[in-house]
């Protein structure tokens, strides 16, 4: 299947290139960068040296393909939707432009008026575990936010099975790698010192809260802080469950909902090095690891992902596999590295 990537110079676009170059069902036709048109993709993605001879092209040079990935900054895809949709019957967008179902929410969370409000209902939200059935029939899929994914996936089974005490708050905090903080691959190539910076990120009002509340149907008090790592997210969520709920009940809920999911792992060990989820051993993988601990009715849930994989490009490839009826794990079987 012939695909192209719009916005391939950023971190998400680079991950798409890496994954799709190894995908047995895919031929990458074109990849765009206005700034670096005509330059080899390995100029910005040095890990792809000797992996491909592809060069960036401009948007005006795009040709029709079977599926189009768009990985542009927020608001760009909605502005150019008509042009992009004319190039392919299928599209997967990694930005936030079509994640929310309520057009008014874009004014609240992104400070802009949505220019394609009638299209929002045509996009399926990008968590495969929640929306697999819809994706099989979809023309358009919107990638889910990385912090949203790392928060929604561990909490959704608990809401789905009705074990959460919804009269009490749900509080979640994410520790994030700097690659989710807005740096692009092109910026990092000129300012490599930025790739490991430590900075406060978003104590309140994070945009991904809109996705969490949309998918979970419940308010979430969420904070995110960037720490000294480049890739990865570790979320710790606190909530309350119904009186009498046991750890065995929580185990059974996760097994019932996620037992057949290829990229969800329940990690709760009594012995060993990594007894709970740890993002560094997930680098380059499409896994979401989930752990938990129960104290009375207070449940602490921990999850870890690679923000550029399960939180972006890997999730998009998984969605493509479902949409196109490929084997779900195709191109995503990397198991991670240990020790690291």
- Report, as a whole number of angstroms, the end-to-end distance: 35 Å
> How many extended strands?
14
CATH superfamily of the largest domain: Dihydrodipicolinate Reductase, domain 2
Number of helices: 10
Please give the CATH class of the largest domain. Alpha Beta
Uncertain ranges:
183-199
Provide mean pLDDT, rounded: 93
Percentage of residues in helical conformation:
25-40%
Summarize the biggest pleated sheet: 7 strands, parallel
**CA-atom Rg in angstroms:** 19 Å
Number of domains: 2
Strand order of the largest sheet: 3-2-1-4-5-7-6
Order of helices and strands: EHEEEHHEHEHEHEHEHEEHEEEH
Q: Give me the secondary-structure category.
A: alpha/beta
CATH topological fold name of the largest domain: Dihydrodipicolinate Reductase, domain 2
Q: What share of residues are in beta strands?
A: 15-25%
CATH architectural grouping of the largest domain: 2-Layer Sandwich
Task: Walk me through this protein's architecture.
The protein has a seven-stranded parallel β-sheet with strand order 3-2-1-4-5-7-6, with helices on one face. The longest helix is centred in the middle third of the chain and has 15 residues, at 146-160. β13 and β14 (298-305) form a beta hairpin. Residues 183-199 have low confidence and may be disordered. The chain is built from ten helices and 14 strands. The chain has 340 residues and is α/β, with parallel strands linked by helices. It folds into two domains: 2-143 and 312-323, NAD(P)-binding Rossmann-like Domain (Rossmann fold, 3-Layer(aba) Sandwich), CATH 3.40.50; 146-305, 2-Layer Sandwich (Dihydrodipicolinate Reductase, domain 2), CATH 3.30.360.10.
